[in-house]
Each structure stands twice: as structure tokens, then as C-alpha cells.
Write a structure and sequence with these properties.
Strand 2 and strand 3 form a beta hairpin. The radius of gyration is 16 Å and the shape is globular. The chain is 9% helix and 48% strand. The chain has one domain. The strands form two sheets. A five-stranded antiparallel beta sheet has the order 1-8-7-4-5. The longest helix is centred in the first third of the chain and has 14 residues.
Length: 153
């Protein structure tokens, strides 16, 4: 299975990018998650079976933030990110493609083959500092979260 993970991750990204909204009949009943690594933020994931959506909350975040998930595979060696623009301790834990979060959610396509598949995720948030800090340190704040192994049930 591990030799197929890169292909499963790429296929998962392609399926999510192509699915604007789930049609009828969500084929995923839930998710199982386990965290790995640590960074400067926190990612919480839930699954809403009624809308077939993976709901993600990234903290710290703000109303003026653009959030997305890196979807791919856990990196064998985490990459320390520079401060600034990242807060101290931020790490890149997942090598993958970014998927934007719209209203903090991603619609999971109704594809039965997703059940039992796993993917690694990491949240990234770009927030705008309003009002800017005095003295100005940065107008933007970038945050990364811990990594999450996610399996569809």
C-alpha cells in the first residue's frame, strides 16, 4: 500500500479539485484521524456526512484569513520555515498540493473507492493583520499546523 500512496494522494487531489459539490449519495460515512509532528498552529478536522464535506478549522486564524490544506504525503524530514513571515517553530510536514478551503470545508466526491484510502494533510493559513501592529512587523501572518493522517471510513 505504501508504494501506492503517492498515486492515491495525487488521485485524491484531482478528485477534490474536480468536485464542486457532491451530487446525491455520499459514499463516505466518516473519517479516522491521527496527528503527527508539531508546528505553530492547530488543525481540527470533522466530517459532515449530511453534506459530504470535510470541515477544517485552523487556529490561530482570523476572519481575514485565506486557509488551505496541503494534501499529499508526510515528509520524512520536516522543513523548518523561516521567521518571518512564519512564526517561530513553523514546519512543513506534508509534501503535496494545496486545496483551498471554501467556508472551511472541502466537498468529498461520492466515489466508493475512497473508503479505506488514506491521505496526509496539513493546514496553512495566511491572515492579514488588521489593524497593523505598531511598530509594523508584518502585514501578513502565515501559520502551518500539525500533520494529520486521514482515513476515509
Amino acid at each position: 500500500m505504501s508504494s501506492l500512496r503517492p498515486f492515491v494522494s495525487i488521485a485524491f487531489v484531482a478528485l477534490l479539485a474536480a468536485a464542486a459539490r457532491a451530487q446525491s449519495g455520499c459514499t463516505v460515512n466518516g473519517i479516522t484521524t491521527s496527528d503527527f509532528g508539531s508546528s505553530c498552529g492547530q488543525l481540527a478536522l470533522t466530517f459532515d456526512a449530511s453534506s459530504c464535506q470535510l470541515v477544517a478549522t485552523i487556529t490561530p486564524g482570523s476572519a481575514m484569513s485565506i486557509d488551505f490544506l496541503l494534501v499529499g504525503m508526510e515528509q520524512s524530514v520536516p522543513l523548518d520555515l523561516p521567521s518571518p513571515p512564519f512564526p517561530a517553530g513553523c514546519k512543513l510536514l506534508v509534501a503535496g498540493a494545496p486545496i483551498p478551503l471554501v467556508d472551511h470545508a472541502i466537498t468529498v466526491p461520492p466515489i466508493p473507492q475512497l473508503v479505506g484510502q488514506s491521505v496526509d494533510l496539513q493546514g496553512v493559513s495566511l491572515s492579514i493583520q488588521i489593524p497593523p501592529t505598531i511598530p509594523p512587523t508584518s502585514l501578513f501572518n502565515l501559520t502551518t499546523t500539525q500533520g494529520v493522517h486521514l482515513t476515509f471510513n
